[in-house]
């Protein structure tokens, strides 16, 4: 990826962004890559290769070996907590701050597949965390929210740590992320589809666009008349109007700097 020559800001995208009233930004793991949060692909070279997604990201995997799986999530929580929003997250927050200024912009919604809180820490509101959040927890048995002991958040994913217990029923507190095989929150899907239907510009940033239903949102937007642009240093199979070969932390600040000068 580093060898790829990044492209300058396409004029066609700047024009669309200047004219857009409703913007939807759909983000994936690549959005946080320059903050140091590994993407799924990065992980496939490392942890996912050693531990199967079935073991680490399913309810069955949790119940089979809760200490192993909880330690793995504590490791991921430790990574996210040690990182900061990058210039791309910050640019999106600045862009939303331009509402009411010289642009036509009325709304900028962020829908993310990321389970980190880097958009929020940059100052953005997030319409939907489609795959849940790593900083929220609930009981695996009764579903009540709870706050586990995070003092063991560590850099060693091979530790075994006993999960904290639900105050109500004693079940394990697990992260409120969407495990494989679990449905996404209906309210999140509904809000995201509505935003896609209303957007006149949809930016797809740092996602391989292979995980559904998130990957269907750009198509919903396009069929509703939105211009769909992708920011990704690698080509993907996404059907879009414009692909900008750049990274989140390089491209988004360029775009928003230009918009701020409008
Ligand atoms: P993915 O790993 O499948 O794809 C990441 C995409 O980002 C790739 O297309 C890659 O080319 C691109 N990319 C890499 N660096 C980039 C950069 N600096 N700027 C812009 N693009 C860049 O990730 P996905 O599509 O989000 O799907 C994987 C699943 O894994 C999701 O469900 C997600 O919830 C989860 N995940 C989340 C995080 C996180 O919360 N930060 C991290 C890893 C995985
Ligand atoms: Zn419980």
End-to-end span in angstroms? 32 Å
* Number of beta-strand segments: 8
Computed structural class: alpha/beta
Q: How confident overall, as mean pLDDT?
A: 93
The tally of helices reads 12
Proportion of beta-strand residues: 15-25%
Measured as a percent range, the helix fraction is 25-40%
The gross shape turns out to be elongated
Q: What's the Cα radius of gyration?
A: 19 Å
Low-confidence stretches: none
Would you summarize the structure shown here?
The protein has 262 residues and is of the alpha/beta class. The protein is 37% helix and 15% strand.
Distinctive features:
262 residues; alpha/beta; six-stranded parallel beta sheet; two-stranded antiparallel sheet; 12 helices; 8 strands; 37% helix; elongated; binds nicotinamide-adenine-dinucleotide; binds zinc ion
Walkthrough of the structure:
The structure is a single chain. This protein has 262 residues and is an alpha/beta fold. Helices cover 37% and strands 15% of the residues. Helix 8 runs parallel beside helix 12 and helix 10 packs parallel to helix 11. The relative contact order is 0.22. The mean pLDDT is 93.
């Amino acid at each position: 990826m580093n060898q790829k020559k990044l492209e300058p800001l396409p004029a066609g995208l700047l024009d669309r962004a200047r004219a857009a009233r409703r913007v939807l930004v759909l983000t994936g793991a690549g959005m946080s890559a320059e903050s140091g949060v590994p993407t799924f692909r990065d992980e496939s070279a490392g942890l996912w290769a050693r531990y199967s997604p079935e073991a680490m990201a399913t309810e069955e995997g949790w119940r089979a070996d809760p200490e192993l799986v909880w330690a793995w999530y504590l490791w991921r929580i430790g990574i996210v907590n040690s990182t900061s929003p990058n210039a791309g997250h910050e640019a999106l927050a600045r862009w939303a701050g331009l509402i009411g200024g010289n642009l036509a912009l009325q709304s900028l919604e962020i829908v993310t597949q990321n389970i980190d809180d880097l958009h929020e820490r940059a100052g953005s509101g997030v319409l939907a965390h489609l795959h849940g959040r790593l900083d929220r927890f609930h009981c695996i048995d009764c579903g009540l929210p709870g706050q586990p002991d995070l003092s063991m958040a560590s850099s060693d994913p091979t530790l075994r740590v006993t999960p904290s217990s639900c105050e109500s029923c004693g079940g394990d507190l697990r992260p409120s992320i969407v495990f494989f095989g679990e449905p996404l929150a209906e309210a999140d899907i509904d809000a995201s589809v509505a935003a896609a239907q209303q957007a006149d510009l949809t930016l797809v940033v740092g996602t391989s666009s292979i995980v559904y239903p998130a990957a269907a949102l750009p198509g919903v937007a396009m069929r509703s008349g939105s211009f769909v642009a992708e920011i990704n240093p690698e080509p993907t199979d996404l059907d879009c109007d414009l692909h900008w070969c750049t990274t989140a932390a390089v491209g988004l600040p360029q775009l928003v700097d230009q918009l701020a000068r409008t």
